[in-house]
Amino acid sequence: MPVTDITTDPEKLEMTLVAEFAAPAHRLWHALTDPRQLERFWGPPGWPATFTEFDFTVGGRARYHMTSPRGEASRGAWEFLRIDDGSSFEVIDAFVDEHGAALDGFPAMRMTFAVADAGDGSRLTNVSYFTSLEALEQIVAMGGVEGARQAISQLDAVLQDLRAYAQGKGTRTELLDDTHVRITRLIDGPRDVVWRAHHDPELMRKWLLGPDGWSMTECEIAQGAGDRYRYVWEQDGVPDSGFGFEGESLLSEPPRRAVTTEKMIGMDGPSTLNDMTLYEEEGATLLTLLIEYPDKDTRDMILATGMTDGMEASYARLEEQVIRA
């Protein structure tokens, strides 16, 4: 984990985060000052950021919003106070509404980002300065410490070349906590093609099959938020072997993000939440799927079915049957 320390100091009214990375300082600086790079980590898993404005000059302003899987938005803005190119910058960070106006009842804070060499890599020191103890305690109560840890811990993947980070490593499953799993797979092809492969029934029938010997017999796709989908598979030559999933699209931001519920057809109980994001770099696309389960037992039961192996077979087929076709 890159985050080595997060401390709060009620006397100095400060919160300090320190993180170290196996990447040079100039690469870390670029990640912190490029809005497209910031979008990959500024926000904890499930709440990715979208920067709609980024004027990286003294007196300039940045605006962003973080969107939950269910579409709730949390908006923020930075005003750049100081920039020491390549080493540090300072902002006023504030909660804002959809028009960019500061929200009543939420604290604004001064925040510094400092980048330095550290051994064979680099170190980030991020300090937030509060105007009162109440403001500091409010941010802590809102989950600011854990949210910062989760967000900055995503920077490792951002700082690496995408192919070096993921190519040849297949489908990877990470247990984030008792109810959240993150799955990643590099698809060797452009993002718009990967998106289309998930939203074109003809293409989907070519690759979303799991192990060999199965066919997709029903493929009703949700194209936008509020639409429902239904997928059914059958084992070739085996009567009554069908099973399937159905659900609803909660969020659709082509070609970047799609969030759906998922439930096995005919089964009782709550749905899972599937949050898929696509990021392209030099013709390759990193597919990240964040799955939220209703409880740990459901998580473990589904993972024990060999889900990761089945997904790898499908993603390999996507590359072969769609990308390289």
UniProtKB/TrEMBL annotation:
Family matches, as Gene3D superfamilies: 3.30.530.20
Database matches in InterPro entries: ASHA1/2-like_C, START-like_dom_sf
Ranges where the Activator of Hsp90 ATPase homologue 1/2-like C-terminal domain occurs: 23-159, 190-320
A Pfam entry, by short name: AHSA1
Similarity comment: family membership: Belongs to the AHA1 family.
Protein name: ATPase
